[in-house]
Every structure is written in structure tokens, then in C-alpha cells.
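Please review this one.

:::
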Amino acid sequence: MNDSFEIWRSMLREAVRMERYICFLETVRKWNEDGRDKVPLIEILELLIPCILHLENRIGEKMITTILRKALDLYGNPSKEDFIKNIQRMIQRSIFGSENAPSQWKLQYEKEPGTGNITLPAIQLRNNAARCCIQSIDKIIDYAFHSHADFATKLSQACTKYQQVLTLLTAHRELMDEEIDSFQDLIDDFYESWIDLFGSEGITNYIHMLGSGHVMYFLTEYRCLYLYSQQGWEALNGKIQTFIHQNSQRGGHNSGTRKGEKSYIYSVVRMVIRDLLWKTYDADNFYLELERKGYKC
């Protein structure tokens, strides 16, 4: 415990590397026992099940970013800042909040020096915020493209298909064959319309996975991808963020391994380790073992 963080980091990296190497050797040994002389790549790929929670979040961010960028391009430069303020107000009061209790969410934008041209960086949203935006996407479309009715209608139809896709994909049960076929039919309709409206600008890795049938493959194989998503890790990310905001007022003073030492990460790592100890029951086993030895816990 008296070593530096750099030594801890190098030891951890070496331990992780060794663990991976041992797992690989064990896998190769089993392949040799089965008489295989080549790496069965398809079996490895089949274990890389996509996290639908991450998929939903990233696609939601991309869709909102792409839609608002397209709407921004339709306005002249002097009007772009007004559009951003108005769309931000609408989202604060109609999607994330209400007229009496508006949200404090801000739509970030960048203004180029010299030219004054306004652009939107990629929008980043928490999963619940992205979900709210997709569920209320018609409000955003109607507000952003009120003077472009044909475009708004096509976009609304495409987003409706995607909403139906999410209903099936995030179901907390195993899907039937008919539902999986319906899932891919909806994806195909959404994908074709979305590409027709935005081209390559609207594509991400996850949208590609949907349109190419990769997600349907895993859905056919495992029936319910919700069971394999990483909600626990996403929830832990939110807990870490809250922990940092509540415990970093003094810049990490006295939070290192030695008295008076500053560390911005040490207290977070300790919190994560404690969380994992309880989630994996190692903490329970530790105290049960102490009780068996006669200690009072």
C-alpha cells in the first residue's frame, strides 16, 4: 500500500494481461482436445452480444444530433442562434420538463471566430434523456421542420418505425419468430427512409448493425437481448458521477494514500471497489467468515 499509483497501475495491467493469456491458453487447450487446428472465429463473434442499452443511447444521440443539424442548415446564419434558443426552450418545457417546471438542459453550439458561423457539436445525452427525446420525437420534428411539411412527414414516419423497433428490442421477455421477423421488417423500413433523408451523415456503427441484420442475428440466437445489456455498469457510471460532484469540492485534498496528498481518482476507485464487493457477495462472505471465527460484526 506504500507504492505509487504508477506501480499499482503497472501491476494491474500485468495482472489483466496474464489473466487474458491464461484464459486464451485454456481455450486453445480445449480446441486442441476437440481436434481443431484453426481459431473458430465465428464462435468468438457470437459471444460479442451488443448491449441494447448502449445501442439505444448512441442511436438516440445520433438521431437528435442529425435532425437538429439538418434543421439548423435550413436557417440563415443570423437566424440560427434564435432557432437554437427556441428549440432549447421547447425541449426544456415540453420534453424534459413542463411550463411550470422547465428543465435546465442546454443545447450546446459553437460559433466560428471571424465568420460567426454556428454549428452543433455531437449531442451527448444520458440514456433516460435520449429515451425521452425519441419518445417525443414528433414534437421536435414538427417544431424544427414546420415549414418543410414533406420532409417532416417522411422523417416522422421513419422515426415511428424506430420507436416500434425499440419496443420489441427492449422487451423483457423472449421474442417469438414472428416478432423477430417483424423487428427486421421495421428496421428495413426505418433504415431505407433514414438513409434517403440524411445519407451517410446519419449512419453510426449501431445503425449499421441494425440495418445489416447483425442485431437480428443475435436476437434470433438469444431471443431476449435485454438480459445481456449492461444496465449495472451504466448505473454505476451515474453513481460515480454523483459521487464526484458531491465529494470533489476541495480538489481531492487529503484523499490520496498519504496525508495531505491530492488524488482525484483514489476515492472514486475505493467507492467502485466497495460497490463491486457487495454486488459480488465477496463483502458478505468476508463478514460471514469473520463471524465463523468468533468476531462480532
Remarks:
- The first strand starts at residue 110 and ends at 111.
- The mean pLDDT is 86.
